[in-house]
Amino acid sequence: MTTVSRASAPCFDALLGRALRGELGPDPLTRRIAVALSLIHSLRLDRAVGSCAVEPGALPAGTVEDCAGADVAALLAHPLLPVRVAALDAYLGDVMPHVPAHGAEPVTVPAGSSLERSRARAAAVVDLLDASPGGTVLVVGVVNSLLAELRLRGLTGIPCDLKGGTTEWGEPIGTDALGEVGRCDAVLASGMTLGNGTFDPLRRSAREHRKPLVMFAQTGSAVLPRFLDAGVAAVCAEPYPFFWLDGGPGTIHRYRADDGGTS
User: Fold this and answer.
1) Biggest alpha carbon distance in the chain?
2) Low-confidence winner among 23-37, 129-143, 203-217 (lowest mean pLDDT)
3) Could you give the CA distance from residue 51 to residue 28 in angstroms, rounded to a whole number?
4) How far from chain centre, in Å, is Cα 30?
5) Following DSSP, what letter does each residue of the chain receive, concatenated?
6) What are φ and ψ of residue 170, in 5° steps?
7) Which one of 94, 103, 201, 229 has the minimum C-beta count within 10 Å?
8) CA-CA distances (angstroms) from residue 235 to 21, 30, 57, 215, 242?
9) Handedness of CA 25, 10, 232, 200 (dihedral sign)
């Protein structure tokens, strides 16, 4: 399989800088956002939609509306991180779409209810893990269908989320992901870590502990494949529209690193 061009940037901000300088594609000063959606935080650029999920009330009023018609360069330098993430996601999704020539493996999520489609997506995500039955997986950004899929495969999920709380099984959800990396066999993390600034610390910790890091991404689905072979072992990329928006079949895209992602 032809693999996606690997990132030489050491962190998200470095990748953002390369995009701003036009090193990854057309000069972003020449590109303008066509549509801005407040469903989560999504920006339409030609054929691509870039997304960054945020908590309710996290963005000042008018933020999304101000993005419509803006040039991409301005949004890549925006003071709000979620806007920068969504803009970079849209830009990379346009210049490097999810196609086999760029390393993407398309996987169909069949039609069905939201729960049925969530379970199908969970199975596709967990397939990317290199973990044997009896192993432990740190899950950063709790999704109950992923925890359920891990259980089905004889794996123990260690749930962690900045919001804390409990899982649907009443298990406590930790809030210190970095403190848990050393005691797991693999890490499964949401793309939302990009939008809250925790992705790079988590990636560094996984590399230091030599734990494979697998990302499941609606947020930053076109950004995270750029970190394959740079601390990310695999990515399940799910660009807009997401599985829970429609009952029909859809496509997600899986990527795998060449070196296992821990070097």
Assistant:
1) 52
2) 23-37
3) 17
4) 26
5) -PPPPPP--SSHHHHHHHHHTTSSSS-GGG-B--EEETTTTEEEETTEEEE----TT-S-TTHHHHHTT-BHHHHHT-SSHHHHHHHHHHHHHHHS-S-GGGT-EEEEE-S--HHHHHHHHHHHHHTT----TT-EEEEES--HHHHHHHHHTT-EEEEE-TT--B-TT-PBPBS-HHHHGGG-SEEEEETHHHHTT-HHHHHHHHHHTT--EEEEESTTTTTGGGGBTTTB-EEEE-PSSPGGG-SS-EEEEEEE-SS-S--
6) 80, 10
7) 201
8) 26, 30, 28, 5, 16
9) negative
Residues 52, 55, 58, CA angle at the centre, nearest 5°? 90
Report percent pLDDT > 90 for the chain: 73
d(CA 252, CA 225): 13
Predicted TM-score (pTM) of this structure: 0.88
Contact 12, 20 (CB under 8 A): no
pLDDT of amino acid 179: 95
Residue 218's closest CA among 15, 42, 7? 42
Please name the amino acid found at residue 49.
V
CB 92 within 8 A of CB 24: yes
Tens of pLDDT, residues 240-252: 888 877 788 999 9
Neighbours of 135 (CB within 10 A): 16
* Residue 4 token pair: 């996606």
Query: Where is 125: in which H helix or E strand?
Result: helix 114-126
Lowest mean pLDDT among 32-36, 105-109, 232-236: 32-36
Residues in the chain: 263
